[in-house]
Design brief:
The termini are far apart. The protein has a 7-stranded mixed β-sheet, with helices on both faces. By secondary structure, it is an alpha/beta fold. The chain folds into 2 domains: 174 residues, Alkaline Phosphatase, subunit A, CATH 3.40.720; 153 residues, no CATH class. Keywords: Signal.
């Protein structure tokens, strides 16, 4: 009896199980593994339900995907730290976002130390200086070039050199690394800058440098003209993401789709093909080939930073129609696997799904507030 059972098991493994396992692996290899990085998918709550972006939201496709997914939670991360860690970038004073972003702008960082030095507007609100970044104002390249020229003339003797490969993206090259740590631009956007200014051994020197920048820009002809026509003046810069270009990175994805400069710079640094984010999921599905894809959907971020619940809800509705619903349909047909990554200040959530996940009918769609990490 034992020998007959052994023979039968042997036959089953060779004739049935092995071919099925092989076909499953071939199918998975031919499937597009879609990773969506979605910062601000779960923005912080508010004092009132009316001001809570998640309250009362109906996004049927997204809610179904989240309900049927396998959920994991990792420590809190900003989008930039999630990207850097995924590609094997180690922290220097900061995660070195500046040289990687600069690569994406078409400028070789070489071996220099770079900081992002983004143009910002500081407004006074209740005796605090609140930061607005470039998504809130327009800035022409000739304006940026004139402002940059003034900064370079003033700080040349200090070994500082500013560049503006794009009007709204500025960078600062340093003669030697500073002993400071910084906060990212979107960590500061819409908030009081005081607790987020550079910290560390050289902090006082760099805070004094920022004061000099603000004085130089205060009555600059570009800003005088901007204020005359009712535009916000560019009255400061925001320093972040300092470092030298990292080496020996990993290749966690086969292709990157993003407008974000850091994501594109990481793709360049690791020789991964990269493209601009298509306008919607159907357009992406037509272009994408089998493999592991990273798509950065960062459109919710500005509205969350500035505490605009109506703008956040409108943007989520657009993502629901253009991305979540079509990707749910593709998942049902087995043409993709799907993982949604949602970094938040209280924890980084990941939701992973295969075609079979959608058969978890006992997992009903829930309000989005149920998924928000606490803290």
């Amino acid at each position: 009896m034992i020998s007959l059972c052994s023979l039968w098991l042997n036959w089953f493994l060779r004739a049935v199980a092995k071919p099925l396992f092989y076909r499953a692996n071939v199918t998975l290899a031919r499937t597009m593994q879609c990773h969506l990085l979605i910062p601000s998918l779960f923005p912080p709550g508010a004092v009132t339900q009316q001001n809570d972006p998640l309250h009362g939201i109906r996004a049927p496709a997204l809610q179904t995907l989240l309900a049927r997914a396998t959920r994991t939670q990792a420590p809190p991360k900003e989008m930039e730290s999630w990207l850097c860690e995924s590609f094997g970038v180690t922290r220097q004073q900061d995660y070195p976002a500046a040289p990687l972003c600069l690569m994406a702008e078409g400028v070789a960082p070489d071996e220099h130390y770079w900081l992002r030095a983004d143009p910002v507007h500081l407004g006074v609100e209740r005796d605090q200086l609140v930061l607005s970044e470039a998504s809130t104002f327009s800035l022409a390249q000739d304006e940026a070039d004139a402002l940059i020229a003034t900064l370079n003339q003033h700080f040349a003797a200090d070994g500082l050199h500013f560049v503006a490969p794009r009007a709204q993206h500025w960078y600062l090259r340093l003669a030697r690394p500073p002993l400071i740590s910084t906060h990212g631009l979107f960590q500061a956007a819409g908030r009081s800058i005081h607790p987020l200014l550079p910290a560390g051994q050289d902090a006082m020197r760099w805070r004094a440098m920022l004061n000099e920048v603000q004085m130089l820009l205060f009555e600059h002809p570009v800003n005088v003209a901007r204020e005359a026509r009712g535009s916000a003046p560019i009255n400061s810069i925001w320093l972040s993401g300092g470092g030298v270009l990292p080496q020996n990175l990993t290749q966690p994805f086969d292709r990157v789709w993003a407008g974000d400069a850091l994501a594109r710079g990481l793709a360049l640094a690791t020789r991964i093909p990269h493209e601009n984010l298509p306008e919607n999921a159907p357009a992406w599905l037509k272009q994408a080939a089998p493999g592991k894809h990273l798509l950065v959907l960062d459109a919710l971020r500005p509205a969350a930073c500035y505490g605009d619940p109506d703008a956040w809800r409108r943007q989520l509705a657009q993502l629901e129609g253009e991305w979540f619903a079509p990707l749910k349909h593709a998942l049902q047909h087995g043409s993709i696997t799907l993982t949604l990554h949602a970094p938040t200040p209280a924890g980084t959530l990941s939701f992973s799904l295969t075609r079979g996940s959608l058969w978890k009918l006992w997992q009903p769609a829930r309000p989005l507030t149920r998924y928000r990490p606490q803290g």
